[in-house]
Specification:
Elements lengths: L18 E5 L1 E2 L29 H13 L3 H10 L2 H10 L5 H12 L24 E2 L6 H12 L3 E10 L4 E4 L8 E6 L6 E5 L3 E2 L15 E5 L8 E8 L2 E4 L4 E4 L8 H6 L8
Antiparallel strand pairs: 1-4, 2-3, 4-10, 5-9, 6-10, 7-8, 7-9, 11-12
């Protein structure tokens, strides 16, 4: 995993010690061309965002609240266009940090150098453009992966941003992803890891190999580690656009025959997104 790191860590942190994986899809027009196509969907660089604002115990808490309160889009527009100081003021205005913490550390964040590369972080052909990742990576065109993903494409659906991810330790903070109308995520565990659970506001789920799971990832969810006896945890996070199909010839998205007629969840149940039988 050569992305999902921030400024302030140093070059040695281009790879994560606890998270790894493989992109299922890539975007040939991705703005950050120095990121290998096999890693494009594994995370994005966090320019103008000091580690203390999104990593570690305090940073994770801040980032969780930004996600839970559905402020992520507004937050990153400020980070990318104005910098860390304005982002620090923003999370204070939204009552995510106390007035005393805001005052004590305001100078530190306002002195953080603005990096104009942040403007490549949001908008078309960036990590936030989930539909832009609609070509299979070379590895996912081969073997059993190629057979499975190829069948989905041959049946008319477009695979969008997704990945195969291994989480070797720790957990994953509360966050939101795209609405299932845009990116219908299907979670397929390859191994049983009873040390972690997928958590939503309604329930916690232990994920068993041999089954596919879906929940509304547009709502807050997390991976919660229940004990330190971690086992091999590798999951396919398959993203499919249910109501729109990408046409390569004219680079357009066109609504399909299910648009507005069959709910994406019912499409999943009826085998209209994937059919592994």
């Amino acid at each position: 995993m050569i992305s999902n790191f921030g400024e302030g860590y140093g070059d040695k942190d281009l790879r994560s010690e606890r998270l790894g994986g493989l992109s299922i899809t890539y975007n040939p027009d991705f703005r950050q061309q120095d990121i290998n196509i096999n890693c494009q969907t594994l995370g994005n660089r966090k320019y103008n965002l000091p580690p203390e604002m999104y990593a570690g115990k305090r940073g994770n808490g801040i980032f969780e609240q930004v996600n839970i309160l559905d402020l992520r889009s507004e937050f990153f527009q400020i980070v990318n266009n104005e910098g860390a100081g304005s982002a620090w003021d923003f999370i204070y205005e939204k009552d995510i940090i106390s007035e005393q913490v805001w005052k004590d550390e305001r100078e530190y964040y306002h002195q953080w150098n603005y990096n104009p590369a942040a403007k490549n972080q949001t908008g078309k052909n960036t990590y936030s453009d989930a539909l832009g990742f609609n070509r299979l990576t070379p590895a996912c065109e081969e073997g059993y992966l190629g057979e499975i993903f190829g069948d989905i494409i041959n049946n008319g659906r477009t695979i969008v941003r997704g990945r195969i991810v291994e989480m070797m330790s720790g957990d994953l903070h509360w966050h939101r992803d795209e609405s299932f109308y845009m990116n219908f995520r299907i979670n397929i565990p390859l191994y049983l890891d009873d040390s972690t659970m997928i958590a939503t506001k309604q329930q916690e789920m232990l994920m068993h190999p041999g089954y596919m799971y879906h929940f509304d990832t547009g709502n807050p969810h997390a991976v919660v580690r229940k004990n330190d006896q971690s086992r091999k945890r590798v999951n396919i996070i398959l993203g499919i656009c249910p109501w729109f199909d990408f046409h390569e010839d004219d680079q357009s998205w066109v609504s399909n025959e299910y648009y507005g007629k069959i709910h994406p969840v019912n499409m999943f149940k009826e085998g209209l997104l994937v059919d592994f039988t």
